[in-house]
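Could you help me review a protein record that somebody else here produced? What it holds is a sequence and that sequence's fold in C-alpha coordinate form. I need someone to confirm that the C-alpha coordinate line plausibly describes how this chain folds. Take the sequence as given and treat only the C-alpha coordinates as open to question. This is what I was given:
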Amino acid sequence: MKLANRHACEGTVPRITIGQRVYRRADGSRYVSNTWTAQWSYEGKHHYEALQTRRKDAALRKAFSICERIRAGEVKPKKYALTIAEMREKYLDLKRGEGRAPKTVQKYEAGLLSLVAWSTTVGRRSATSFTADDFWRYNRWLADNGASEKTRYDRLILIKQAFKWAHKQKLLAENPLVGVSLSEPTPTEQPCFTPDQVSTLLREADPHEAAIYATMAYLGLRIGEVRELRWSDILFDAGEHGVVVVRRGGSGGTTKNRGVRRIPLNPALKPYLDTVERKFERVFTARPSPKHPAGGSPISERRLLLSLKRLCKRCGFNNPNQYKLHTFRHVFASMCARSNIAYKYALTWLGHSDSKILDIYYTMFDDVAGEAMQTIVYPTQPPSKPPSEGK
Protein backbone atom coordinates (compact mmCIF):
# COMPACT_ATOMS: atom_id res chain seq x y z
CA MET A 1 0.00 0.00 0.00
CA LYS A 2 1.34 3.40 -0.98
CA LEU A 3 0.78 6.44 1.25
CA ALA A 4 1.12 10.11 0.32
CA ASN A 5 1.87 12.93 2.78
CA ARG A 6 3.57 10.49 5.14
CA HIS A 7 4.19 11.60 8.72
CA ALA A 8 6.09 9.61 11.37
CA CYS A 9 4.40 9.72 14.79
CA GLU A 10 7.17 10.50 17.29
CA GLY A 11 6.94 8.51 20.53
CA THR A 12 4.96 5.59 19.15
CA VAL A 13 6.25 2.07 19.82
CA PRO A 14 6.23 0.36 17.40
CA ARG A 15 6.85 3.34 15.18
CA ILE A 16 3.63 4.29 13.37
CA THR A 17 3.45 6.35 10.20
CA ILE A 18 0.29 8.04 9.05
CA GLY A 19 -0.47 9.05 5.48
CA GLN A 20 -3.17 9.33 2.86
CA ARG A 21 -3.73 6.28 0.74
CA VAL A 22 -3.05 6.48 -3.01
CA TYR A 23 -5.58 4.76 -5.26
CA ARG A 24 -5.40 3.87 -8.93
CA ARG A 25 -8.39 4.48 -11.20
CA ALA A 26 -9.48 2.16 -13.98
CA ASP A 27 -7.88 4.47 -16.57
CA GLY A 28 -4.51 4.22 -14.83
CA SER A 29 -4.59 7.67 -13.21
CA ARG A 30 -4.12 8.03 -9.47
CA TYR A 31 -5.81 9.99 -6.75
CA VAL A 32 -5.12 10.55 -3.05
CA SER A 33 -7.70 9.80 -0.36
CA ASN A 34 -8.70 12.69 1.90
CA THR A 35 -8.75 10.44 4.97
CA TRP A 36 -5.71 9.17 6.93
CA THR A 37 -4.33 5.64 7.22
CA ALA A 38 -1.86 4.25 9.77
CA GLN A 39 1.06 1.95 8.80
CA TRP A 40 3.42 0.03 11.10
CA SER A 41 5.49 -3.16 11.40
CA TYR A 42 5.12 -5.56 14.31
CA GLU A 43 6.77 -8.95 14.80
CA GLY A 44 8.02 -8.97 11.23
CA LYS A 45 4.64 -8.19 9.66
CA HIS A 46 3.32 -5.03 8.05
CA HIS A 47 0.01 -3.68 9.27
CA TYR A 48 -2.33 -0.99 7.94
CA GLU A 49 -5.45 0.52 9.47
CA ALA A 50 -7.88 3.07 8.03
CA LEU A 51 -8.27 5.85 10.61
CA GLN A 52 -11.49 7.21 9.07
CA THR A 53 -10.75 10.87 9.71
CA ARG A 54 -9.67 13.82 7.57
CA ARG A 55 -8.05 15.67 10.46
CA LYS A 56 -4.37 15.14 11.03
CA ASP A 57 -4.53 15.82 14.79
CA ALA A 58 -7.28 13.20 15.16
CA ALA A 59 -5.19 10.75 13.10
CA LEU A 60 -2.21 11.28 15.43
CA ARG A 61 -4.35 10.54 18.50
CA LYS A 62 -5.60 7.36 16.87
CA ALA A 63 -2.02 6.32 16.13
CA PHE A 64 -1.20 6.47 19.85
CA SER A 65 -4.36 4.51 20.67
CA ILE A 66 -3.09 1.79 18.29
CA CYS A 67 0.08 1.58 20.39
CA GLU A 68 -1.99 1.13 23.55
CA ARG A 69 -3.97 -1.59 21.84
CA ILE A 70 -0.80 -3.40 20.78
CA ARG A 71 0.58 -3.26 24.36
CA ALA A 72 -2.71 -4.82 25.51
CA GLY A 73 -2.14 -7.70 23.09
CA GLU A 74 -4.67 -6.58 20.48
CA VAL A 75 -2.64 -6.34 17.30
CA LYS A 76 -5.54 -6.22 14.90
CA PRO A 77 -8.59 -3.99 15.34
CA LYS A 78 -12.04 -5.45 15.68
CA LYS A 79 -13.63 -6.12 12.32
CA TYR A 80 -17.02 -4.54 11.76
CA ALA A 81 -19.32 -5.85 9.05
CA LEU A 82 -22.65 -4.07 9.13
CA THR A 83 -24.66 -3.39 6.00
CA ILE A 84 -27.02 -0.44 5.66
CA ALA A 85 -29.93 -2.85 5.25
CA GLU A 86 -29.00 -4.61 8.51
CA MET A 87 -28.67 -1.29 10.33
CA ARG A 88 -32.13 -0.32 9.07
CA GLU A 89 -33.74 -3.49 10.43
CA LYS A 90 -31.99 -3.22 13.81
CA TYR A 91 -32.91 0.44 14.21
CA LEU A 92 -36.54 -0.17 13.25
CA ASP A 93 -36.74 -3.05 15.74
CA LEU A 94 -35.58 -0.62 18.41
CA LYS A 95 -38.22 1.99 17.51
CA ARG A 96 -40.98 -0.59 17.41
CA GLY A 97 -39.86 -1.86 20.81
CA GLU A 98 -40.00 1.69 22.18
CA GLY A 99 -43.67 1.79 21.27
CA ARG A 100 -43.40 4.60 18.75
CA ALA A 101 -46.59 5.66 16.98
CA PRO A 102 -47.42 3.63 13.84
CA LYS A 103 -47.13 6.73 11.64
CA THR A 104 -43.73 7.52 13.15
CA VAL A 105 -42.52 3.97 12.48
CA GLN A 106 -43.83 4.20 8.90
CA LYS A 107 -41.88 7.44 8.47
CA TYR A 108 -38.70 5.74 9.74
CA GLU A 109 -39.31 2.74 7.50
CA ALA A 110 -39.71 4.90 4.38
CA GLY A 111 -36.72 7.11 5.21
CA LEU A 112 -34.30 4.24 5.87
CA LEU A 113 -35.64 2.23 2.93
CA SER A 114 -34.70 5.09 0.62
CA LEU A 115 -31.14 4.95 2.01
CA VAL A 116 -31.03 1.22 1.27
CA ALA A 117 -32.29 1.93 -2.26
CA TRP A 118 -29.55 4.52 -2.78
CA SER A 119 -26.85 2.20 -1.40
CA THR A 120 -27.98 -0.56 -3.77
CA THR A 121 -28.03 1.82 -6.73
CA VAL A 122 -24.48 3.09 -6.17
CA GLY A 123 -23.06 -0.17 -4.83
CA ARG A 124 -22.29 1.14 -1.32
CA ARG A 125 -24.14 -1.40 0.82
CA SER A 126 -21.74 -1.30 3.78
CA ALA A 127 -22.54 0.92 6.76
CA THR A 128 -18.99 0.33 8.00
CA SER A 129 -17.44 2.20 5.06
CA PHE A 130 -20.13 4.90 4.90
CA THR A 131 -18.64 8.42 4.91
CA ALA A 132 -19.78 12.02 5.20
CA ASP A 133 -19.28 12.29 1.44
CA ASP A 134 -21.74 9.42 0.96
CA PHE A 135 -24.18 11.28 3.21
CA TRP A 136 -24.17 14.30 0.89
CA ARG A 137 -24.27 12.10 -2.22
CA TYR A 138 -27.42 10.53 -0.82
CA ASN A 139 -28.85 14.02 -0.27
CA ARG A 140 -28.12 14.87 -3.90
CA TRP A 141 -29.76 11.62 -5.01
CA LEU A 142 -32.91 12.49 -3.06
CA ALA A 143 -33.03 15.94 -4.67
CA ASP A 144 -32.55 14.46 -8.13
CA ASN A 145 -35.48 12.14 -7.46
CA GLY A 146 -37.81 15.01 -6.58
CA ALA A 147 -37.67 14.98 -2.76
CA SER A 148 -38.54 18.34 -1.21
CA GLU A 149 -36.16 20.21 1.06
CA LYS A 150 -38.27 19.29 4.11
CA THR A 151 -38.33 15.60 3.15
CA ARG A 152 -34.58 15.56 2.60
CA TYR A 153 -33.97 17.27 5.94
CA ASP A 154 -36.17 14.78 7.82
CA ARG A 155 -34.46 11.78 6.20
CA LEU A 156 -30.96 13.12 6.75
CA ILE A 157 -31.73 13.73 10.43
CA LEU A 158 -33.04 10.18 10.67
CA ILE A 159 -29.86 8.79 9.13
CA LYS A 160 -27.70 10.77 11.56
CA GLN A 161 -29.71 9.31 14.44
CA ALA A 162 -29.36 5.76 13.07
CA PHE A 163 -25.58 5.99 12.68
CA LYS A 164 -25.19 7.57 16.11
CA TRP A 165 -27.18 4.71 17.61
CA ALA A 166 -25.19 2.06 15.70
CA HIS A 167 -21.93 3.51 17.02
CA LYS A 168 -23.21 3.58 20.61
CA GLN A 169 -24.26 -0.05 20.26
CA LYS A 170 -20.72 -0.87 19.07
CA LEU A 171 -22.01 -2.01 15.70
CA LEU A 172 -19.66 0.55 14.10
CA ALA A 173 -16.13 1.47 15.09
CA GLU A 174 -16.94 5.16 14.65
CA ASN A 175 -19.81 7.43 13.79
CA PRO A 176 -18.90 8.80 10.34
CA LEU A 177 -21.47 11.60 10.65
CA VAL A 178 -20.41 13.00 14.00
CA GLY A 179 -19.16 16.23 12.42
CA VAL A 180 -22.01 16.68 9.94
CA SER A 181 -24.44 19.54 10.65
CA LEU A 182 -27.74 20.43 8.97
CA SER A 183 -29.74 23.64 8.75
CA GLU A 184 -33.46 23.22 9.26
CA PRO A 185 -35.34 24.44 6.19
CA THR A 186 -37.76 27.33 6.32
CA PRO A 187 -41.30 25.97 6.74
CA THR A 188 -43.22 25.96 3.50
CA GLU A 189 -46.39 27.99 3.26
CA GLN A 190 -49.46 25.93 4.07
CA PRO A 191 -53.05 26.55 2.91
CA CYS A 192 -55.15 28.43 5.44
CA PHE A 193 -58.86 29.21 5.39
CA THR A 194 -59.91 32.83 5.70
CA PRO A 195 -62.49 33.70 8.37
CA ASP A 196 -65.09 34.13 5.63
CA GLN A 197 -64.30 30.69 4.21
CA VAL A 198 -64.77 29.08 7.62
CA SER A 199 -68.11 30.84 7.94
CA THR A 200 -69.13 29.54 4.51
CA LEU A 201 -68.06 25.97 5.32
CA LEU A 202 -69.96 25.88 8.60
CA ARG A 203 -73.06 27.30 6.91
CA GLU A 204 -73.01 24.90 3.93
CA ALA A 205 -71.95 21.68 5.69
CA ASP A 206 -74.56 19.27 7.00
CA PRO A 207 -75.04 19.44 10.80
CA HIS A 208 -73.06 16.27 11.48
CA GLU A 209 -69.91 17.51 9.76
CA ALA A 210 -70.43 21.17 10.66
CA ALA A 211 -70.10 20.29 14.34
CA ILE A 212 -66.80 18.50 13.67
CA TYR A 213 -65.41 21.34 11.55
CA ALA A 214 -66.50 23.91 14.13
CA THR A 215 -64.73 22.00 16.92
CA MET A 216 -61.49 22.05 14.96
CA ALA A 217 -61.90 25.70 13.95
CA TYR A 218 -62.78 26.98 17.44
CA LEU A 219 -60.39 24.79 19.46
CA GLY A 220 -57.49 24.16 17.05
CA LEU A 221 -57.65 20.40 17.61
CA ARG A 222 -56.03 17.76 15.46
CA ILE A 223 -58.42 15.33 13.78
CA GLY A 224 -57.19 12.51 16.03
CA GLU A 225 -58.01 14.60 19.09
CA VAL A 226 -61.48 15.34 17.74
CA ARG A 227 -62.05 11.65 17.02
CA GLU A 228 -61.11 10.67 20.61
CA LEU A 229 -62.97 13.53 22.35
CA ARG A 230 -65.39 12.29 25.05
CA TRP A 231 -68.38 14.09 26.55
CA SER A 232 -66.65 13.72 29.90
CA ASP A 233 -63.80 15.87 28.49
CA ILE A 234 -66.13 18.85 27.97
CA LEU A 235 -66.63 20.60 31.31
CA PHE A 236 -69.55 22.89 30.55
CA ASP A 237 -69.68 24.22 34.12
CA ALA A 238 -65.97 25.10 34.41
CA GLY A 239 -64.73 28.64 33.90
CA GLU A 240 -66.90 31.33 32.34
CA HIS A 241 -68.17 29.34 29.35
CA GLY A 242 -66.71 25.87 29.94
CA VAL A 243 -63.41 24.05 29.37
CA VAL A 244 -62.38 21.28 26.98
CA VAL A 245 -59.77 18.86 28.30
CA VAL A 246 -57.66 17.34 25.50
CA ARG A 247 -56.03 14.12 26.68
CA ARG A 248 -56.21 11.67 23.73
CA GLY A 249 -55.66 11.56 20.00
CA GLY A 250 -52.09 10.38 19.56
CA SER A 251 -50.49 6.97 20.05
CA GLY A 252 -50.59 5.07 23.30
CA GLY A 253 -53.86 6.63 24.39
CA THR A 254 -52.34 10.11 24.86
CA THR A 255 -51.98 13.27 22.80
CA LYS A 256 -49.20 13.69 20.25
CA ASN A 257 -46.89 15.42 22.75
CA ARG A 258 -48.12 13.09 25.54
CA GLY A 259 -49.48 16.01 27.54
CA VAL A 260 -52.95 17.07 28.70
CA ARG A 261 -54.16 20.57 27.91
CA ARG A 262 -57.21 22.59 28.91
CA ILE A 263 -58.78 24.91 26.33
CA PRO A 264 -61.49 27.45 27.21
CA LEU A 265 -64.71 26.60 25.42
CA ASN A 266 -65.58 29.27 22.91
CA PRO A 267 -69.27 30.19 23.40
CA ALA A 268 -69.69 30.26 19.60
CA LEU A 269 -68.94 26.52 19.53
CA LYS A 270 -71.67 25.52 21.99
CA PRO A 271 -74.61 25.77 19.51
CA TYR A 272 -72.82 23.29 17.23
CA LEU A 273 -72.25 20.87 20.12
CA ASP A 274 -75.91 21.16 21.05
CA THR A 275 -76.80 19.62 17.67
CA VAL A 276 -74.91 16.41 18.56
CA GLU A 277 -76.90 13.66 20.30
CA ARG A 278 -75.26 12.34 23.46
CA LYS A 279 -75.89 8.70 22.63
CA PHE A 280 -72.29 7.50 22.90
CA GLU A 281 -69.22 8.11 25.03
CA ARG A 282 -67.46 9.78 22.11
CA VAL A 283 -68.68 13.22 21.13
CA PHE A 284 -68.36 12.53 17.40
CA THR A 285 -68.99 9.17 15.77
CA ALA A 286 -69.45 7.91 12.24
CA ARG A 287 -72.90 7.75 10.73
CA PRO A 288 -74.77 4.41 10.92
CA SER A 289 -73.66 1.92 8.27
CA PRO A 290 -74.51 -1.67 7.25
CA LYS A 291 -71.60 -2.84 9.40
CA HIS A 292 -72.55 -0.57 12.31
CA PRO A 293 -76.32 0.03 11.92
CA ALA A 294 -76.60 1.53 15.41
CA GLY A 295 -73.70 3.93 14.77
CA GLY A 296 -71.09 4.70 17.42
CA SER A 297 -67.95 3.72 15.50
CA PRO A 298 -65.07 6.24 15.34
CA ILE A 299 -65.19 8.83 12.56
CA SER A 300 -63.07 8.08 9.49
CA GLU A 301 -60.38 10.65 8.79
CA ARG A 302 -60.18 9.61 5.13
CA ARG A 303 -63.91 9.93 4.51
CA LEU A 304 -64.11 13.23 6.35
CA LEU A 305 -61.22 14.60 4.29
CA LEU A 306 -62.89 13.62 1.01
CA SER A 307 -66.11 15.21 2.22
CA LEU A 308 -64.27 18.45 3.08
CA LYS A 309 -62.68 18.64 -0.35
CA ARG A 310 -66.06 18.16 -2.01
CA LEU A 311 -67.54 20.87 0.21
CA CYS A 312 -64.71 23.29 -0.66
CA LYS A 313 -65.38 22.65 -4.34
CA ARG A 314 -69.11 23.17 -3.89
CA CYS A 315 -68.43 26.45 -2.08
CA GLY A 316 -66.37 27.68 -5.04
CA PHE A 317 -62.98 27.87 -3.31
CA ASN A 318 -59.93 28.16 -5.57
CA ASN A 319 -57.91 24.93 -5.76
CA PRO A 320 -60.24 23.05 -3.37
CA ASN A 321 -58.02 19.97 -3.24
CA GLN A 322 -55.28 21.88 -1.41
CA TYR A 323 -57.29 22.02 1.81
CA LYS A 324 -56.93 19.42 4.55
CA LEU A 325 -58.56 18.77 7.89
CA HIS A 326 -55.39 20.20 9.44
CA THR A 327 -56.20 23.50 7.68
CA PHE A 328 -58.72 24.19 10.45
CA ARG A 329 -55.81 24.07 12.90
CA HIS A 330 -53.95 26.61 10.77
CA VAL A 331 -56.91 28.97 10.66
CA PHE A 332 -57.22 28.70 14.44
CA ALA A 333 -53.56 29.72 14.76
CA SER A 334 -54.12 32.62 12.37
CA MET A 335 -57.19 33.76 14.33
CA CYS A 336 -55.14 33.76 17.53
CA ALA A 337 -52.66 36.06 15.80
CA ARG A 338 -55.38 38.27 14.25
CA SER A 339 -57.02 38.67 17.68
CA ASN A 340 -53.72 39.58 19.40
CA ILE A 341 -54.06 36.63 21.79
CA ALA A 342 -50.95 36.21 23.93
CA TYR A 343 -48.46 33.93 22.18
CA LYS A 344 -48.08 31.67 25.23
CA TYR A 345 -51.85 31.04 25.31
CA ALA A 346 -51.89 30.12 21.63
CA LEU A 347 -49.00 27.70 22.13
CA THR A 348 -50.73 26.13 25.13
CA TRP A 349 -54.03 25.67 23.31
CA LEU A 350 -52.28 24.16 20.27
CA GLY A 351 -50.20 21.85 22.47
CA HIS A 352 -46.79 23.12 21.29
CA SER A 353 -43.64 24.20 23.09
CA ASP A 354 -42.85 26.21 19.98
CA SER A 355 -44.38 26.52 16.53
CA LYS A 356 -42.87 27.88 13.33
CA ILE A 357 -46.31 28.00 11.71
CA LEU A 358 -47.62 30.06 14.63
CA ASP A 359 -44.57 32.34 14.32
CA ILE A 360 -45.48 33.00 10.69
CA TYR A 361 -49.04 34.04 11.56
CA TYR A 362 -47.97 36.20 14.49
CA THR A 363 -45.51 37.96 12.24
CA MET A 364 -48.08 38.33 9.45
CA PHE A 365 -50.76 39.84 11.69
CA ASP A 366 -48.55 41.86 14.05
CA ASP A 367 -50.48 45.14 14.03
CA VAL A 368 -48.24 46.59 16.73
CA ALA A 369 -45.18 46.06 14.55
CA GLY A 370 -46.98 47.68 11.61
CA GLU A 371 -47.92 50.71 13.69
CA ALA A 372 -44.38 50.95 15.05
CA MET A 373 -42.94 50.91 11.53
CA GLN A 374 -45.10 53.92 10.61
CA THR A 375 -43.39 56.00 13.31
CA ILE A 376 -40.07 55.87 11.41
CA VAL A 377 -40.14 59.11 9.41
CA TYR A 378 -37.14 61.04 8.13
CA PRO A 379 -37.26 64.86 7.67
CA THR A 380 -37.02 64.66 3.88
CA GLN A 381 -39.29 65.55 1.02
CA PRO A 382 -40.82 62.69 -0.94
CA PRO A 383 -39.26 62.20 -4.37
CA SER A 384 -40.95 63.98 -7.23
CA LYS A 385 -42.20 62.07 -10.25
CA PRO A 386 -39.77 62.01 -13.18
CA PRO A 387 -40.82 64.16 -16.16
CA SER A 388 -42.63 62.35 -18.94
CA GLU A 389 -40.62 61.55 -22.08
CA GLY A 390 -40.82 64.08 -24.84
CA LYS A 391 -41.30 67.10 -22.57
Q: What stands out?
A: The chain has a mean pLDDT of 87. The first strand starts at residue 3 and ends at 9.
